[in-house]
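FAQ

Q: What does a record look like?
A: Structure on top, sequence underneath. For example:
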């Protein structure tokens, strides 16, 4: 009888260990991309007067970038310019159109980021006249994303991704540029679940 009890106990312990190991392996596979610290979010976001959401203290794209960092652990680099500070919406979009038509490259604050240790780079911004704001293209000329996975995203009020993905491919021909993600600006404050669903579907 003692031998039977001993054998049964050994089998129970072995089963418990195997179940625990199986659970750990599943968690590792499911969340392995979240723990990798080789991701960067590069973004431009406009606070102040915005279409549909009014005067906001935190820009729509900044909120999405924060979601990405929270969910994936990615570092951030925000493209900053004070050129548009305090502008009402209509003068802003008129200026943005003028910049786009002329191909202007407004300066950004500070230095370009060192991206040497990152394998995956998210690039996000609002859609202004069919693509990213021109100040983003200023930074694009100062960084090298060759060999990296680049994931574009946009906030918009009807433009979707517009030409942003194709323009990123033109700017970084030696990078692997993915399909991209877009979300309405007026949805971002309640749209974390949409961002999380998108990120969970990525393979990188």
């Amino acid at each position: 009888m003692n031998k039977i009890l001993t054998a049964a106990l050994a089998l129970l312990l072995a089963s418990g260990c195997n179940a625990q190991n199986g659970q750990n392996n599943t968690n590792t596979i499911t969340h392995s991309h979240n723990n990798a610290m080789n991701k960067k979010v590069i973004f431009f976001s406009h606070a102040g007067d915005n279409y549909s959401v009014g005067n906001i203290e935190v820009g729509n794209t900044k909120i999405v970038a924060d979601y990405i960092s929270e969910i994936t652990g990615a570092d951030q680099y925000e493209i900053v310019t004070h050129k548009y500070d305090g502008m009402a919406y209509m003068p802003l979009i008129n200026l943005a159109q003028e910049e786009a038509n002329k191909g202007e490259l407004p300066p950004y604050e500070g230095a370009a980021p060192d991206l040497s240790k990152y394998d995956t780079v998210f690039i996000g911004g609002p859609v202004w006249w069919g693509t990213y704001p021109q100040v983003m293209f200023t930074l694009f000329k100062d960084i090298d994303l060759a060999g990296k996975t680049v994931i574009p995203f946009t906030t918009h009020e009807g433009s979707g991704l517009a030409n942003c993905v194709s323009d990123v491919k033109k700017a970084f021909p030696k990078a692997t540029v993915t399909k991209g993600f877009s979300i309405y600006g007026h949805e971002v404050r309640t749209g974390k679940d949409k961002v999380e669903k998108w990120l969970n579907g990525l393979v990188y």
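Q: Is there anything notable about this one?
A: The chain has two domains: 1-35, 36-200.
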